[in-house]
Hints:
mainly alpha, Cyclin A, domain 1, 2 domains, 65% helix
Amino acid sequence: MREAKVLSSPCSSRSWNGHGVGQPLPPQVRGACLRFLHRLTDLVGMPADGWWSAVLLLDLYVLRAEPAPEAVPAACAAVVSLLRKSDKASFRPQWSDFTLQASQLAQWLRSLRFPTRAEVTISEILVQEKNIIEALDWQINCPSVHVWMSALRERFSILSNGAFTTLLDWVFQASLQCASMLVTSRPTTASLPPQRVANGLFCLNLVAASLVPLEALRPDKVGKTEWEMLFMESQGQGAVPHCGMPSEHQTKMVELLGLMTRCGPPSLQADAYEVAVTMRDIYSEMRVASTSWTCRHHGPRIPSVV
């Protein structure tokens, strides 16, 4: 309900450009901000899932309010400050750490020709705290992909009576690795919110673990061959896993997916499809980037002549 409220309700404050709907940060800028969030959440001692929550809150703030470019470093610091205060009521920020780290981020963004100030002050961070709270109607604890994924693992373990503990641990870790790539490469949007990302990745990795048949996740609009090819491209695999469960157990496993996610088959199929397409595109971009780097640093490959 919190997720739906933040992502679907109209903005409570108008953005600086008057449109009320934010545009994503440029990829290089967002990448620098995400690395900053990782460093600062670790510095203030946030739990392991703190970075995921911080990335989500930053994305939601940009989506809802589109802060001015010069306010981005302060907004990143404010995100961590708000989440830490919410997590631990006795937390008192060491503002010198916040301003130092935020100022370093600002200087790095300036090197990318992103228009920010050279230094970030305490007052600017406090202003951004207020702006974030107002833009999100006080809904700053929206569940991240990590929260959703943890809930899915716990539900699956309980509903299956702990019968697949080892495989489930692998599915969880594989899903988190994919989620890290997706969250780093793509900002949160209303069309692909954290719940859909978690549902899609978890179900696809259950297929990869041979616990669920791939066909059960195929949308009606997608042909069997196309779906299998998409799955392989989204997983970086050269073959479709064979579900080793007996046919009657496969039906039970599909029913278990519905109970675990509280979603019907059409919704799960749509989630799996959207996530598979996104992961395929990410892998494709990584290959292009790797090829480009190789060409720049090593020159073109000359085919051998037999």
